[in-house]
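Before any further analysis, backbone shapes were mapped to integers, which produced the following:

***
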Amino acid sequence: MGKFLRLIFEIVGNFFCRYDVLYVVEDADWVVKSEGLNYQKYMHRHGIRLRISITHLGARNRVVHFGAVSTLVNNHGVKDLHPSNRIILTWYHVPENDPRMNYLKSLAGRVSFLHTSCEISKKVFVKSGFPDSKIVIIPIPIDLEVFDFNKINKEHGRRKYDLPSDKFIIGSFQKDGDGWGEGMNPKHVKGPDLFCDAIENLPENNRLHVLLSGPSRGYVKARLKKAGVSFTHIFLKDPSDVVELYSVIDAYVISSRVEGGPKALVESWALKVPLISTSVGMCADYGVNGVNIFMADECSGASISKAINRVLSNPKSPTVFQVIENAYKTVQDLSYAKCSLQWLNLYKNEMSKSS
């Protein structure tokens, strides 16, 4: 079905279908859509009919939840909204000099509330003039029914993907290049340059193998190839298949400069993978250095490299084991089962106002 016909189909569905909440996603099979589908699953268990759509057009007298700022705001302004709808906006993080922030104050008069996932993002919004009283923090959760540590098998996964058995495998499963092409232009907020700097700085990087997933990883692959670090890049069609990739790695690295989550935080914790990260997003809210995470002292390749080495130098140490176990305990409170209850109350409140 062509994009235009698909849009018409969605608009007709938004107008005629029976549902309680319209969840608007990007027209791409990536994280925003995945989040919507997960909430659809759990909302239906609570008796809330949540419809996923690539557009808000056609909705009348509904609760319309925009799953990412890109679905409501672009560089030219805020999309037209029917006044009968109750609007919720999820906005996870703010890149430096984001032009969409110019519309933040006008959004305050249009949305019922702005949802974000971490304190750092909330502070940015409040400092920029958005009312504190209209901001709700709910973390980006994890589906522990899917990300189940007890179901993974490292040896099977390494054989399936033909990964070296004698190397320490570091995972990086994100989109960190601009656009949806090859990704040779690094996305500054995701820090692919810092990731590569960190790998290159490690004294024993010949012991490493980097496992990549996600689109637009051209910059990282070029840097690793130039540095002589072996890697494998696997692009998954089904996001839930990433569980198998976590099962084969020895550590995961988050090198971002700005984040709202990321999902890799809760995914690593749920599957007992040692996590190395910069102090961003939910990592800063829920991570405690040396307790449930290995946090870089600063946002630099050298600092990230130092944090990686705490695991690489002795991956079987009691310290690493205890950090993994503490992280696993922490993530139990960051599940969809628990976070969906917060959304249930918010949706019901908005539904009562829109009826």
